[in-house]
Amino acid sequence: MPVSFDPALLDTYVDDGWLTRVDDGPLSIWNYTPKTVFEGRWDAVTLACRGLVLDRATAEVVALPFPKFFNHDEPHAVIPDGAPEVTVKLDGSLGIGFRADGRLRWTTRGSFFSPQAAAAQALWDARYADVPVPEAWTLLVEIIHPVTRNVVRYDEEEMVVLGARDRFTGEDLPYVGVRRWALGAGLAVTEPVEGDLPALLERAEALDDQHEGFVLRWGDHRVKVKSRAYKRVHRLITGLTERALADHWYAGTAAALRPLVSEELRMWIDAQLAELDGAVAAMERAVEALVAANADAPSRKDFVMAVGPKHPLFGMAIRRFLGQRLDYREAVYRARYPGAPRPR
Description:
38% helix; 5-stranded mixed β-sheet; 2 domains; alpha+beta; D-amino Acid Aminotransferase, Chain A, domain 1
């Protein structure tokens, strides 16, 4: 039976907040939203919309990506009977290939215009523009590039073939055949791995943070197994708010974050740390100048009268006047965030 989707139905999901839609001329791409993830609103529509591209006027399926699949330990994960086909899970961005304007174009699951999609297009046009991708295929790749970096640091830019789907029938094409085609075309392919689920869970526990894990496939059904070390670093990076970074700054552990993150995030970290260090230096200069200006006060009472208890730096200045050491780093932290620095 041919695959079909009703754009009008998809747009009702957009109106209700379960999907997003991005347009590019007559084409639209639909993707599930954070609200869908948080509320677990998974059905045939939201599972399918992981970068689904349609022609709005004709409802033609232009790109049919893998449906959403889950980590093995998530509530919505289903583990079928039988031995799975297993491949290495790569840590980049999903690239979705489709035909438009007489060539193969690339998108990511949320936007035609993302930096990751632009990186994929540049790689494809430079290296693989002459590769004859079958007209019925939606080619699915992992985009390995500095702009797609999450945790794992790869040495080279690449488009690694993960699989392909027939956009007309919906068939998730067999790995062996897609691999043979890709290698014959000079494309990299995700590597096969031997093992059942218990064995792979054990292996994943031993992987370091530079190996994300594995994808297990039973026909057209997939689940993910991720390494504990990878998940730890990924949680650290994705939860890196300004305050979380300030906690690391205060604890002296911020430098250890830099090798783990993308160049763009590293630049943000460096800017935030420089701003915090600058605030410490400025506060110390201001307090020391205030104390020096009133150093001849004969007593604590005289110092209080000279400075005034309403001065914003009075508390620190009186402590310095009395010879106490100050933690300017903690003072800067507390001036920005409620409570004390949180252990890291």
